[in-house]
Amino acid sequence: MPGPAVEAAARGGGGDHGHVHDHDHDGGGGKGAADWEKTYLDVLGICCTAEVALVERLLAPIDGVRAITVVVPSRTVIVEHDAAAVSQFHIVKVLNKAGLEASVRAYGSGGAGAGGRWPSPFIVACGALLLASLFAPLLPPLRWLAVAAACVGAQPMLLRAFAAAGKLTLDINILMLIAVAGAVALGSYTEAGAIVFLFTVAEWLETLAYTKASAGMLSLMSAVPKTVVLAETGQVVGLRDVAVGAVVAVRAGEVVPVDGVVVGGQSEVDESSLTGESMPVPKHPHSEVWAGTMNLDGYIAVRTTALAENSTVAKMERLVEEAQNSRSKTQRLIDSCAKYYTPAVVVLGAGVVLVPLLLGARDLKHWFRLSLVLLVSACPCALVLSTPVATFCALLREARMGLLIKGGSVLESLGEIRIAAFDKTGTITRGEFSISAFSVVGDKVELSQLLYWVSSIESKSSHPMAAALVEYSQSKCIQPKPENVTEFCIYHGEGIYGAIEGKDIYIGNERVLARSSCQHQTDDAGLNNKEGVSTTGHVICDGDLVGVFSLSDDCRTGAAEAIRQLRSMGIKSVLLTGDSAAAAKRAQEQLGGVLEELHAGLLPEDKVRLVGDLKARAGPTLMVGDGMNDAPALAAADVGVSMGLSGSAAAVETSHAALMSGDVLRVPAAVRLGRRARRTIAANVAASVGAKAGVLALSLAWRPVLWVAVLADVGTCLLVVLHSMLLLRVRDHPQQGRACGSKPGRPCCATAKAKSPAARCQSAGAPKKIAAVRVHQAGRLAGGEKAKDCHCCPKQGGKAPEGSVVIAIPAAKDAAGGCCGGGVGKASCDAASNNYPTTSTPAAGEDEVCVVISARSPCCSKARSRSGSPKDAAGAAGCKDGAMCCSGGGGRDGGMSSALVC
Ligand SMILES: Nc1ncnc2c1ncn2[C@@H]1O[C@H](COP(=O)(O)OP(=O)(O)OP(=O)(O)O)[C@@H](O)[C@H]1O
Ligand SMILES: [Zn+2]
């Protein structure tokens, strides 16, 4: 039996997947041979995976059909076909001839079917006849009514059974019909009627449940209008014909048809279909808007930034579709078991009759009955559905929360996460920088000249800092002229380079200073001491430092709470940032010290390596990031979550899940749901296997009862579906989640409260020492090429990426009592026991300063014994009692968790 959702490339191979149209019939035709169209069909006759093969065998031979996708959980068949060669109605007709009850889904209408709401006349008649037949003890001929009930109710089953038999597929309908025939042959008419009635009623109830689930699916993909109004001319054109850069008009109450930027008017837009966020978002010129969101009030003119088929909502739709088709590990395992289960049980059923028959057993009726029970139990329906339905519901729930998960296996991994790594800029923080200072160094250039250069070059960068710098210049009445920039280049983790008016200009952090071979000793102490500074930037013109600036960025609302929630679930959080140690530190302060580790100054490849280390050290790793520099790390993590709408396209592309809003609290919620889905699947599997085992045990221990077997089969099917649907009702955030996160005006709730002992500890001693960290780092990197040769504490075996700053976080005083996990050596352990940051002097001949800013969790002896090097052992031994452990338990690569600054 094939999987519950199988994509069958039927014809013409897998050509261009990028160009897929929705199923509008009028807009599509006559554009040449390759006008592929996608038709969505509700097919009520799909009971379980058995019908997948049937649907494929029916549709694949049709000319003009390119691909068939069967989504069992939502009973949807998606057919990609050439509209000119084969119409939707022909496809529907073929399916209906096989009794599959197919209908074309109208765009925006509720899913699985118009016919689902009330039981079909067949079911009603079957029930009525069966009820009447129960009076047979009073009037014996009434018992024939039960046979009539079976005949009437079995009509739809018969059609499907014939179609399946014709295609040489053994499906549930055939099995049930054999059981009915057997019951009649045995003279148990009531039982025959009961089998049919139970089966059809259960099927109907299942359909009802599915309808509900897939209706949610469709409301998620809110209907994007097919036509748009061009703002300038008022002309109405087809959505597909809208070019990038066209300006379209969106009136109040209309759905935004394309992704774009507002160029006129203002309004509030409901983005809940994309982000799951119910608060309307105000839009004014320069705001971004997305297709599929609802313009609530006011008129806006939108300049499109993407073709309709590349809009975010179209991508979402494709993602959700693909997610339904990708099978998880558990699902694959179950499917391959199911493949052997049915034939095995059918053979067993035959054997149970044949062997006693050949041996001349007396009680043949008993064996025949047992054989029928086995046949009925041969459908692994509930087991096969146990995973996909739960996955479908969980994915749907996540999507409604604004998190698009690319498949069941990702969901499965999400439930296993042990450690979470967060990017800083744009993930933990808003990525909305404000410039706190911008000054000229030396007298080579004027401020206005400098701002003009910087803003012109930054206009070409998509880094969050760039937008702030451009805006700052504009606020000083200086207009950037990106067209004057003749050369442009991005150095990841460093900054940018641009040539303008014959000048070579570098903008970025200390690394860029080194790159530009600027000999200037950085002297930005004045900037550093300012309250709230996070990042310092440099402008180098033709090898001379000509400007410095500082920017700050606030934490996202709920970031601290999200990390705290993760911690309460046993998941540690670490920070991986390309930004400076000072900025990392500031974020940590704002968060109230909730992060276990900070890693700063990382290049994209360092992030990948650290994610690999986390995986080896702690197990399944979650990575949340937004930038281009996060993309490789997102791919490397077990689950990479990108910040969808605000994040870079590369991050969204390589991640396993995309968060459509800036609400980081969705991350712990998603993990919770992932865990819940795992439990649901486990319970489903247990119930479906248990039911079959129970029927078998009952048959052997007492006597085989057919209707009990049928009830167990269809009953567990129904149970599995209903149980899975509970996932749809999981609440977004637990109560505590919202409590402080939603208070406006506070960047991070933890900062405001500053209740945690860690935070108190920090405010006592940390900031001063932290400044020392930064100075050391800056000093080192400003040294030009030396930065390249310097390894951070080589004793660590190079675990800490070159040039990075690793800081273990101040611990709560009451958490003392651990040990030093290793890597940092004795000096640091001693430092650690002081509970505040300490700088140890460099050992002779070493160009490094190891800084330990204490640590968080007490580590266990197990972790200690694992650290291999004698040096580590010595370090561990030196700080047995009272000393703190380097966070992360100082496991195999405890070096990573220590604080090292060269
Ligand atoms: N366009 C730019 N203008 C000025 N400085 C830049 C620019 N791009 C990068 N930088 C400098 O390079 C540093 C590292 O950038 P990178 O994109 O790797 O990380 P980030 O976005 O700051 O942090 P995170 O990794 O947390 O997202 C920045 O902190 C900044 O100092
Ligand atoms: Zn079934």
From TrEMBL:
Superkingdom assignment: Eukaryota
Compartments, record wording: Membrane
Occurrences of domain HMA (ranges): 37-103
PROSITE patterns per record: ATPASE_E1_E2, HMA_2
Membrane topology: Multi-pass membrane protein
Coiled-coil annotated residue ranges, if any: none
Ranges that cross the membrane: 122-139, 145-163, 340-361, 367-396, 681-700, 706-728
A GO molecular-function descriptor: ATP binding
Biased composition (Basic and acidic residues): 14-31
Protein name: HMA domain-containing protein
